[in-house]
From TrEMBL:
Family of this protein: Belongs to the PNT beta subunit family.
Organism: Lacisediminihabitans changchengi
Record's protein name: NAD(P) transhydrogenase subunit beta
EC number: 7.1.1.1
Subcellular location as annotated: Cell inner membrane
Domain NADP transhydrogenase beta-like residue range list: 10-465
GO molecular function, one term: proton-translocating NAD(P)+ transhydrogenase activity
Residues annotated as transmembrane: 6-25, 37-56, 62-81, 93-115, 127-148, 168-187, 193-212, 219-239, 245-263
Function field: The transhydrogenation between NADH and NADP is coupled to respiration and ATP hydrolysis and functions as a proton pump across the membrane.
Catalytic activity entry: NAD(+) + NADPH + H(+)(in) = NADH + NADP(+) + H(+)(out)
A single cellular component GO annotation: plasma membrane
Length: 473
């Protein structure tokens, strides 16, 4: 082993160590930001190591390393600008785009390495197997993530989309990709066979995600993230790069665990989700209750809500996608701080799949500097609802639908926030329209529930103004 290879190995190992430390720190909200920075530092070391040693090994081929430097600079610039300017509601779309880029890049690496070996009579299985798997998984991730991003952005309908024969075509695409991949292992390097794997996998990725409904969006985003990790790990095996292998394995393992946890939180199997999601997409909502059926609904004003909150001892806030869509995280944090300063015990009840991706609500509230100890996860929150004076639901629907406890509907068996266990419930929502699952919510007509129809941002601001009046009166 040369000194160059030894130094590269040490640097890659250092980068991998930072990946592991950073990932471990991301387990807790209080250390997640620092963990993210540590992981980013590890990736910076890995990228710079690759560029520097590529220059050393280039032997004067300045075009190759110049392309590496330019590509890294362009990618870093886009990533920084896009991440800093993206709205919180658009983070799931951005994550899907990053998944697509990661999977596509990994597939491209394997494809290029395969082309470089077309002149040899045979490929060792330690290279041909990772290449075939990388191109297949990376292509599925690329096309599937683009469709997922389109659904989340509204470019493609969030409703389950299918057509006659779609399942058959998907099975055929999978069989073709698998068959061509096996043939690649048995014959000399054959570019047309790899192209067949590529095209068939791209088709499979599209047809796998199109039938996924809006309610299953968090799970499919997490699953595609796991696929990205697997593709990157396979690319590492293909080109014998330790950093890619370790980083890809970490992402794949973490994504798989998170996917299983999300599926469990919805009481569904990953297989059932892939075979076809339930629910509707993003139905357009009206800004008020005028066109809604308000039979048995108790409508509240901002003053009504303020009185309940100002004189409560324990308040639980259950945020949902409506809060994220209205960018109302700062307003809810201001209201909570006002109540806390007044002596009210305020906590947030966080459902695992509230929002559009895993951890969406935690990130959203952290951006508004909500104390981490105020964020209660599902089990903690449900225990707290039994002693809760007022539960304030902001833009959430399916995750607090009591019908989940009954069989025979779209959310049956899904673990929910037990909002209806609180002494009094206030639901801040734009209208009576159903959530992603497309079913009505009996919580809205419960005698102890009051509906305050408003945009989350404006509604919370109005409630805060009213609370100030009662506190200072």
């Amino acid at each position: 082993m040369s000194i160059v290879e030894f130094l590269a190995g040490i640097l890659y190992l250092s980068a991998a160590t930072l990946f592991v430390i950073g990932l471990h720190m991301m387990r807790a909200p209080s250390t997640a930001r620092q963990g993210n920075l540590i992981s980013a530092g590890g990736m910076t070391i890995a990228v710079l190591t690759t560029i520097v040693f590529a220059v050393i090994d280039s032997g004067g081929d300045w075009i190759g390393w110049a392309a590496l430097i330019v590509g890294a600079a362009l990618g870093a610039t886009y990533g920084i600008v896009r991440a800093r300017t993206v709205k919180m509601t658009a983070i799931p779309q951005l994550v899907s785009i990053f998944n697509a880029v990661g999977g596509g890049a990994a597939a491209a690496v394997a494809f290029a390495d395969f082309v470089a070996h077309l002149s040899v009579t045979s490929l060792d299985l330690t290279m041909s197997i990772p290449i075939a798997l990388d191109v297949a998984i990376g292509s599925i991730t690329f096309s599937g993530s683009l469709i997922a991003a389109g659904k989340l952005q509204g470019i493609i309908s969030g409703k389950p989309l299918t057509f006659p024969g779609a399942r058959v075509i998907n099975v055929i695409a999978a069989v073709i990709a698998l068959g061509a991949g096996v043939l690649l292992l048995l014959v000399p390097p054959n570019l047309p066979l790899l192209l067949v794997v590529l095209v068939a996998s791209l088709i499979f990725g599209v047809l796998m995600v199109l039938p996924i409904g809006g309610a299953d969006a968090p799970v499919i985003v997490s699953l595609l993230n796991a696929f990205t990790g697997l593709a990157v790990a396979m690319a590492g095996f293909a080109i014998d790069n330790q950093a890619l292998i370790i980083a890809g394995a970490l992402v794949g393992a973490a994504g798989t665990i998170l996917t299983l946890q999300m599926a469990k939180a919805m009481n569904r199997s990953v297989g059932a989700i892939i075979l076809g999601g339930f629910g509707t997409g993003d139905a357009k909502t009206t800004s008020g209750a005028a066109s809604q059926d308000l039979t048995n609904v108790r409508v509240l004003t901002a003053d009504d809500v303020a009185i309940q909150l100002a004189y409560a001892q324990h308040v639980l806030i259950a945020p949902g996608y409506g809060l994220a869509a209205a960018q109302a995280q700062h307003e809810v944090a201001e209201l909570a701080k006002l109540l806390t300063d007044h002596g009210v015990d305020v906590k947030y009840a966080i459902h695992p799949v509230a929002g559009r991706m895993p951890g969406h609500m935690n990130v959203l509230l952290a951006e508004a500097n909500v104390p981490y100890d105020q964020m209660l996860q599902l089990d903690e929150a449900n225990a707290a609802f039994d002693n809760c004076d007022v539960a304030l639901v902001v833009g959430a629907n399916d995750v607090c639908n009591p019908d989940a406890r009954k069989p025979g509907n779209a959310v049956s068996g899904m673990p929910i926030l037990n909002v209806d266990h609180a002494k009094s419930v206030v639901v801040l929502k734009r209208s009576m329209r159903p959530g992603y699952a497309g079913i009505s919510n009996p919580l809205f007509t419960d005698p102890k529930t009051g509906m305050f129809f408003a945009d989350a941002k404006q509604g919370l601001a109005d409630i805060t103004t009213a609370v100030k009046q009662y506190i200072t009166a």
